[in-house]
C-alpha cells in the first residue's frame, strides 16, 4: 500500500517539474521578445505526442512539447525549422525533455495549420558507447 502512495507523490512531483519547464520556457521567451532579442514570442504547452516517436519514458497522451510562434501570420517552413533547431541543437535541454517524458517537438505559428515535428530521441545522442572492451572481453 505504501508504495502506491510513493508512486502518486512521484507522479505529482514529475508533473510539477514538467509544468515548471514549460513555465520557464514561456517566461524566457516573453523576456526575449520584450527586450527585442527575439522577433516573435514563443509559447510552449504540453500536447499529445506522436506514437512512432515514443520511447521508454514517454508520458501517455502528454508526450508532445508544442511551441506556438505568435507571429500574426503563417510562418514558412524555414522559419519553423529555425525555431525547432534552437531546441534540438541544445542537447542538454533535449535530454531534459526526454527524461521528463516528452518525445515529440512540434513548432507551429499562431495562424495557419502547417507545422513541423521532430522526434526528440533522434537529437539526444542516446545509445553512445558506455565503455570499451579490451582484448580480454572486459569492460574498461
In DSSP terms (H or I, runs of 4 or more residues), the helix count works out at 3
Termini gap: 42 Å
Mean residue pLDDT: 85
Return Rg in Å: 18 Å
Which sheet architecture does the biggest sheet show?
A: 4 strands, mixed
Q: Output the strand order for the largest sheet.
A: 1-2-3-4
Q: What string, H for helix and E for strand, traces the elements in order?
A: HEEHHEE
Strand proportion, as a percent range, falls in 15-25%
Q: Per the principal axes of the C-alpha atoms, what is the gross shape?
A: globular
Number of strands: 4
**Into which percent range does the helicity of residues fall?**
25-40%
| Low-pLDDT segments | 4-9
Summing up helix and strand content along with how strands pair, one would put the structural category as: alpha+beta
Task: Please provide a written account of the structure.
With 140 residues, the chain is of the alpha+beta class. Helix content is 39%, strand content 18%. It has three helices and four strands; from the N terminus they run αββααββ. The chain has helices at 2-35, 77-88, 91-99, and strands spanning 41-47, 64-70, 104-109, 115-119. A four-stranded mixed beta sheet has the order 1-2-3-4. β3 and β4 (115-119) form a beta hairpin. The longest helix is centred in the first third of the chain and has 34 residues, at 2-35. The termini are far apart.
Summary?
The protein is α+β, with helices and mostly antiparallel strands and 140 residues long. 39% of the residues lie in helices and 18% in strands. The longest helix has 34 residues, at 2-35.
Amino acid at each position: 500500500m505504501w508504495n502506491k502512495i510513493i508512486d502518486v507523490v512521484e507522479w505529482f512531483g514529475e508533473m510539477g517539474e514538467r509544468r515548471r519547464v514549460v513555465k520557464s520556457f514561456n517566461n524566457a521567451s516573453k523576456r526575449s521578445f520584450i527586450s527585442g532579442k527575439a522577433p516573435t514570442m514563443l509559447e510552449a504547452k504540453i500536447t499529445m505526442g506522436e506514437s512512432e516517436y515514443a520511447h521508454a519514458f514517454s508520458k501517455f497522451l502528454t508526450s508532445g512539447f508544442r511551441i506556438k510562434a505568435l507571429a500574426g501570420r503563417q510562418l514558412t517552413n524555414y522559419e519553423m525549422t529555425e525555431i525547432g533547431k534552437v531546441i534540438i541543437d541544445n542537447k542538454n535541454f533535449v535530454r531534459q525533455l526526454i527524461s521528463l517524458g516528452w518525445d515529440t517537438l512540434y513548432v507551429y505559428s499562431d495562424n495557419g495549420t502547417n507545422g513541423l515535428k521532430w522526434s526528440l530521441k533522434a537529437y539526444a545522442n542516446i545509445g553512445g558507447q558506455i565503455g570499451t572492451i579490451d582484448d580480454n572481453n572486459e569492460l574498461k
